Amino acid sequence: MDFNKNYFEIFGLPVDYAVDQELLGDRFLDLQKQVHPDRFAAGTDQEKRLAVQWATLVNTANETLRTSLPRAIYILGLRGVELEHNPTLPAAFLMDQIELREQLESIEEGEGNLEELDSFRQKMRQAINELQAKFQEALDEDTDKAERLVYELQFLSKLMVSANRLEEKLLDY
Amino acid sequence: MALLQITEPGQAVDPHQRKRAAGIDLGTTNSLIASVRAGVAETLADEQGRHMLPSVVRYTSSGIIVGDEALTEAVNDSMNTIVSVKRLMGRGIKDVATLGDQLPYRFSASEGGMPRIETVSGNVTPVEVSAEILRTLVDRASATLAGDLDGVVITVPAYFDDAQRQATKDAAQLAGVNVLRLLNEPTAAAIAYGLDSGSEGVIAVYDLGGGTFDISLLRLRKGVFEVLATGGDSALGGDDFDRAIAAWIVEQSGYVKPLASEQLRGLLMASRSIKESLTDNAKVDIDFDRDGVQFKGILDRTTFDDLVAPLVDASIKACLRAVRDAGIELGEIHNVVLVGGSTRVPQVIAKVAEYFGKTPLNNMDPDKVVAVGAAVQANVLVGNKPDDEMLLLDVLPLSLGLETVGGLAEKVISRNTAIPAVRAQEFTTYKDGQTAMLIHVLQGERELVTDCRSLARFELTGIPPMVAGAAKIEVMFNVDADGLLSVSARETSTGTQAGVEVKPSYGLTDNEITSMLQASFEHATGDANQRSLMEARVESGRVIEALGNALAEDGAALLTESDIQALQQAIEELGRVSEGEDHLAISEGTELLGRASEEFASLRMDAAVRKALAGRNIAEVDKEF
Fold it and tell me: Which residues in chain B are closer than 8 Å to A1, comparing Cβ atoms?
């Protein structure tokens, strides 16, 4: 088994931020049908071990390529970029983030208005989409810029998770 | 019940070559065993024609009784008659204490934290009790299928955590049966329904059993059942409906003293009948008079609905969460399937239909569908259907994490991650020269350690002494296809493998299992050596057959002539050793053959993967023309 293949190669896809999700889904099923441990339930211990390794890799690769932020980070990784744990971000961006957080907090402390929360999340999604488009462009021109955009995406992503958690709390899940 | 027909076109099955496999539904209230025979998956009955085996085990001074005969004594001998043992699997003494007013048993602690139940014939753990149920079922199957089983698939609630799953596997080991896979109950039901209706799309499986509730959303596509999300409550079930009625009766009767175990058991059994009666009748006459609790009156369906509404609502809420986790819209769900005896309750059917906006399917017997689905998978896994395309891709039901500073639980693998899966987490030392580290593994969604399930504590030793913060310890979490976790750790700057000693929080330690196995050998007919020899031969036979088939299929394409010869010689050698009486030599030989064929196995995998992708590419090219 070639554990040296990158995730795109495993699925026979070109290395690109834009991924044909339907194609990825089809290939994922095709691959698992070949490597999943259930196919080797009557096999040797070594076959079973290999199968678990392969199936795990296919799952990890699928998960990464299916979700936009992990995919972005992975592509940068292929280019040798290792993300910083505490990156410095432009002041303007940080100010925006603080404001957004405050907005979310006031929604939470306020009447807990689900509509307000919904439009907040809509706004967030739009901002994320825009950043993703910029990331795609930056990948072709300027890897450093792409890296900075990923840091911004990470921020927004965390904020989105908080917003989703708040929604769950308000809906009492 | 509707028999599940499986067509096997063009497959001439040599009856002597078919392996014996079965699916076991180890339920809270009832257990069943099913098998595929002549292409049909069906449950197996005992000599009296009974398919369902009450999950009741009675310990007496003269022996162990399992099933209906044990159930009849449940009220009179409640302390020694273990009912709903599934609720105790993978649980510690403190958890059991919270179920205390519902379970009449006397508990004491054991080495691995698992509670022991005191009975007249000694202390037993829930694992041993479950093993008795499994043994009874396996014996039934061996008798019906005229031979020992080659493997079983045992179902577990999708929402079972690692400790509960491990306990189930331990029970199977004690019962002496080979587990091919632990299968999630909703997935098993989906197999049964999926093959029956033959359609593709998203299925919601609402499984309300005696003691557990699961909701699973699966997508069936190209023969693959892919779980999108799963949720539930491993302490919510039909038993709770019974309890609600029992509490109502006690309240109505004005009885205020604490209930003794016999009273409780009697009340619960009466309540169950009342609940079942209310399925077909709008009201039920109650005339209960037992040991001081007296009530004569009527319970109507409206009152019953009010009593159980909070329980049903809790289950719907779990459905909501699962739909959200799956990232789909309600409208995308094609079919809703009801599983488990408790889904016969009219209010359950109504609320499920209301939430999902469609009429749920329940044309298959809700009591048998899980065992039937498990039998189908067992048949495939044991090797009876080598060309079958069916595949199950399941997920981890609850997040796995570690305890970090401040009593916080940090998630390492999120819930609904596809399994098998692996994740790594890096740690460092906080004291100069620190050579060991204690790691606490948890399962659950909450932020505080105290709100999560404690799975195990690991002591990592052998960390090379360094300056504080210099050591890079990588802890790897591996979850297998059964949903079971194993952990390994490495100090990465020096590459030393850290020793990992696991202390399960609520499980049996390896010592305990070994002693239990030894004790069962002593009671079994025939001696331990014979058994080991038999097992070693079964194992070597399996490997010889698997390798033989592999060589026949792919040997010529992937190996050189001399490699093929070498492997064939090794196979013959193992065959020779297996005819001897030395079980250790046979086991060693099996291991050796496995290792010798590892390279070949690797090549076969690569070839299969390339074929899978190439096949896809050709199909794409065809589309263009």
Answer: 602, 605-606, 609
Question: What letter represents residue A147's amino acid?
Answer: E
Q: Are strands B116-119 and B122-124 parallel, antiparallel or unpaired?
A: antiparallel
- Which of A54, A62, A168 lies closest to B605 in CB terms? A54
- Domains annotated for chain A, with CATH where assigned, are 7-66 (1.10.287.110), 91-171 (1.20.1280.20)
What ipTM goes with this model? 0.91
Residue B146: count other Cβ atoms within 10 Å of its Cβ: 7
Q: Which chain B residues are Cβ-neighbours of A33 within 8 angstroms?
A: 223-224, 389, 391, 612
Q: What is the pLDDT of residues B324-348, one digit of tens each?
A: 999 999 999 999 999 998 999 999 9
Please tell me whether residues B377 and B498 are part of one structural domain: no
pTM of the model as a whole? 0.87
Dist. CA B441–CA B487, nearest whole Å: 9
pLDDT digits (tens, 9 = 90+) for B253-288: 888 888 877 788 888 889 999 999 999 999 999 998
Interface membership of B77 toward A (CB under 8 Å) = no
CA torsion sign, A61 to A10 to B328 to A117? positive
Output B155 or B6, whichever has higher pLDDT.
B155
Spell out which residues of chain A touch residue B221, defining contact as CB-CB under 8 Å: 29
Who contacts B63 (Cβ-Cβ below 8 Å, separation ≥6)? Answer: none
| For residue B104, cis peptide bond before it (omega within 30 degrees of 0) | no
Compare CB distances from A12 to B180, B377, B617 and report the shortest one's residue. Answer: B617
